[in-house]
Amino acid sequence: PVGRPAAMYAGLQELGVANGEDLKETLTNCTEPLKAIEQFQTENGVLLPSLQSALPFLDLHGTPRLEFHQSVFDELREKLLERVSAIALEGKVEERYKKLEDLLEKSFSLVKMPSIQPVVMCVMKHLPKVPEKKLKLVMADKDLYKACAVEVKRQIWQDNQALFGDEVSPLLKQYILEKENILFSNDISVLHNFFSPSPKARRQGEVVQKLTQMIGKNVKLYDMVLQFLRTLFLRTRNVHYCTLRAELLMSLHDLEISEICTVDPCHKFTWCLDACIREKFVDNKRARELQGFLDGVKKGQEQVLGDLSMILCDPFAINTLALSTIRHLQDLVGQDTLPRESPDLLLLLRMLSLGQGAWDMIDSQVFKEPKMEAELITKFLPMLMSFVVDDHTFNVDQKLPSEEKGPIPYPSTIPEAFTKFLQENRIACEIGLYYILHITKQRNKNAFLRLLPALVETFSDLAFSDIFLHLLTGNLTLLGDEFAVEEFCTGLFDGFFLTACSRKENVHRHVLRLLLHLHHKVAPAKLESLQKALEPTKQSGEAVKELHNQLTEKLELRKPSPAEVAETPSMELPLPTVPTPASR
């Protein structure tokens, strides 16, 4: 080991064990090197009397002493690692940790020695509280910090928020990127969309699993992650941070980490809501449970509303609440009941309102439920119900025998109040958008074209948000055959999508995604004009340029080749008349 780097035997001198440097010094200052080597081997070899006679036997087999010592060392290290893990589980708590602390004290000076490092790290891993001094030494050394177990890192992180933030930050960025990649995926389908994976499946994702492991049972670290998520949500308004807030809590719930679940006041609410998200519906029993949690927020504990609102702001929660609202409205039409007479519907609106108000509540730090506008319940929802009635009336009318006056046309106008609600009321806008998704999924072209103009201007441009456009493009695949109709394409593209393409790059991307999927259904002349209208500008990002290139390539493949075009006239030559057998 004379030529080995110093790290190989770092710390041995402090323990009074000879190392390569000592051997080098001995050989430099001696007159008989071979004798000096023999003496060094005797003093520092394995001190077993029975071994001395066996070593020459290994020499006869050509086994180098280094190989022998290395194998003995590896075997001893494995035994020691097993023993350390065993000590961590046996005897009284104070005694076992006292043994491990003593072992750490004796071995820590060798922590930089690669061959011994695993043992030192193993001892630290099993100590619930590593001495502060040693933690600081580990933290100060990049390589040691990297090598230590997550159990040790947790102890470092809990008093170093900035360092923990550096570890968590790339994971949060990765999480947001993964969500955006799903929303912009080129696979457009009504069956497999952003909301298809079950909550349990989503929690198996890499980021959630890594964060869960980093937190362990440490409440302080859990609180830090929640603080990061709140801060980022405030800074960016990105609702995917709300999803992660809920997924992280439920991931710890899956592992039965009671140390954290019992202290998070949102745990039972989130657990109940998670079951609703799994079913994509809020049933009566769970609705009562959720209401109980909201009504149970005591005076002086209103701050929990900030966390509950963030849980409800999760797009998966909003999706479930909005789908349930549409279903309730349809049921009410059949029951001849007004929205204000349905407690279940009012609760869904209350939760939607709390979720949609999350950002304002956390930003203002005013923790009280947003006031529900009466007109939402007395005017807007009955208006939506009247649209459902219009559809029923039209469908029944189509089945009746037509009289001389001819069939009744589908209503083409929309009440001005509907457009106004979509522009000025966030909850009305959310429910209105989900109603439009609902009629698209039902392949109700008439209702879709009737309501589409109301989407050009909506509250906070919600109709041009990624989640809505992702769902809309998926549902539009069910109306594929309509893309051959000029009126439909003009209403959809010219009347809606193209009004925002130039100012909103995400809309540009979603339209190109849709055309990549349905270009073969669109009339050639319309397709050509759309291809021109959707050409990237100098300001367009790489994603738009790439999608437009893909579309251009697909359209090129559809065009007949010049050779085919040249041959076409020959097909139109008059065919020679062949007499039929009957005319002979």
Automatic annotation (TrEMBL):
Coiled coil: none annotated. GO terms for cellular component: NELF complex. InterPro entries: COBRA1. Residues 552-561 have a biased composition (Basic and acidic residues). It comes from the Eukaryota. Residues 552-584 are annotated as: Disordered. GO terms for biological process: negative regulation of transcription elongation by RNA polymerase II. This is NELFB factor. It comes from Odontophorus gujanensis (marbled wood quail).
